[in-house]
Design goal:
Helix content: 40-55%
Distance between the termini: 37 Å
CATH architecture of the largest domain: 3-Layer(aba) Sandwich
Strand content: 5-15%
Number of domains: 2
Number of strands: 11
Strand order of the largest sheet: 2-5-8-1-9
Order of helices and strands: HHEHEHEEEHEEEHEHHHHEHHEHH
Length: 317
Amino acid sequence: MSDVAAIETFVKKYKDLKTEIAKVIVGQNKVIDQILISIFSGGHSLLIGVPGLAKTLMVNTIAQALGLDFKRIQFTPDLMPSDILGSEILDENRHFKFIKGPIFANIILADEINRTPPKTQAALLEAMQERAVTVAGHHYQLSLPYFVLATQNPIEQEGTYPLPEAQLDRFMFAINLDYPTYQEEVNVVKATTTDNKVTVNPLFTAEEIMNYQHVIRRIPVADNVIEYAVSMVSNTRPNYKNAANLVKEYVDWGAGPRASQNLILAAKTHAAINGKFSPDIENVQAVAEGILRHRIIKNYKAEAEGITDENIIKSLF
């Protein structure tokens, strides 16, 4: 199948996928799009939202519709790296045997990742970046495709360990999950207070998802679109000569080169799901907020004056 035909098939399957997810998840279209763009781009996502907004249900439903293996890890202050990665035990023949931890799945939900100490947070780093883990000197490859969706609760910060910038940068998207609208909440209550069971049908296989990831990476991008993405990222750095006044005044640190790479990869996927064979500047702008939000470190002045990440990012367009 040619890449053009593959993208045309992908557009149809993506629409079917959204319909399948909508059987369970009411609304949250933008959030679901960003999660799916992240998966088909080969990235990871950080989901920021208060409890009770169906984050776990959303990830579980997406995993079912994609036909992928799903595991949930509840991060707590006493969680150890071995609780995530697995450990070696002595079997009945006095031989060491490796028992795999929950990290060995296609989709991992790292629930409330900021509740666990840095040592355990760091156990995810190698898995996210290398798609492999090292335990007791042995290297274990993770099954592909591999996707980490971490969640953070933005309101209860007591007793939490904020993610370091190096780990935040590993996430392609930081996605803000907001309350549903009034009508969406009415629909949620109607759907979840009966005895009706909804079946989510798997529409993809792991191999198909990886094939589409390769097709998306082969999508050509015009030089002016790449230059636009790199300029946008460069302009988040306050010491850059063309940085906007808002950036110079309210930003301590800007985004690094990984942001430029992620902008182009996500723009390719955004173009593909909309039936385009090459991304343009509008596709870059459509994904910019989620990709830059967690990579811009504001100063105290921005906090004091109520300047949001969105204000700063919109000034870059």
